[in-house]
Amino acid sequence: KNIVILISGRGSNMEAIVRAFNLEKWSARLCAVISNRADAAGLAFAEKEGIPTRVVSHKDYSDRKSYDAALQAVIDKYRPDLVILAGFMRILTTGFVEHYTGRLINIHPSLLPVFRGLHTHRQALDAGVRVHGATVHFVTPELDGGPVIAQAVVPVLPEDSEDSLADRVLEQEHRLYPRVVRWIVEEKVKLTPEGRVRLADEV
Ligand code: GRF
Known about the structure:
It catalyses: N(1)-(5-phospho-beta-D-ribosyl)glycinamide + (6R)-10-formyltetrahydrofolate = N(2)-formyl-N(1)-(5-phospho-beta-D-ribosyl)glycinamide + (6S)-5,6,7,8-tetrahydrofolate + H(+). The active site is at 108 (proton donor). The structure is a single chain. The chain folds into 2 domains: 1-100, Rossmann fold (3-Layer(aba) Sandwich), CATH 3.40.50; 108-135 and 152-203, Rossmann fold (3-Layer(aba) Sandwich). 35% of the residues lie in helices and 23% in strands. Helix 1 (12-24) runs parallel beside helix 6. It has a 7-stranded mixed beta sheet with strand order 3-2-1-4-5-6-7, with helices on one face. A two-stranded antiparallel ribbon has the order 8-9. Strand 8 and strand 9 form a beta hairpin. It contains 6 helices and 9 strands. The chain is an alpha/beta fold. The radius of gyration is 16 Å and the shape is globular. The structure holds 5-O-phosphono-beta-D-ribofuranosylamine. Residues 7, 9-13, 86-87, 107-109, 134, 170, 173 line the site of 5-O-phosphono-beta-D-ribofuranosylamine (GRF).
């Protein structure tokens, strides 16, 4: 399986995936880490790991459609079986998303379908929920609306701030995302033609 990872910043989820890949020796190839920002901190880690990195800057394109087309061209050079969004902070066009149907996954820091969009930890605190978490899902044209593959749950504590809650969720993201990627590499998860997630019995 050829894997391409897209980031925009810190890249801690990408890092967790790369570490699990190295440690567990998945039968897959980490083909490239691609960022829309040249200053993404995660690029240095990928380089250090010997993974090819590319920057496709959104600033070089006048609209989403042309940016997504350029990004798709770069990604497709690697013939990816799986494209992983790991803190990639761009809304993607329907054409791009549909090109990768069943091959494109994202991690979102909430228990979808609640708290889509940005500032999910703030949203959770404002709503007064007692549990919160993260979701890995297949990407569909509806933002943060694709079929759920797996979720991790954390408690919301009375003394929580946005930061303390974000830290607790992030720790779980770093466990959840590599696990799901491994399932996909091992063909234990797939998206059916009807748009549902099918999991193998053993996951
Ligand atoms: C994570 O919280 C992820 O759920 C969200 O963006 C953040 C990215 O963090 N999509 P990092 O770049 O992986 O450290």
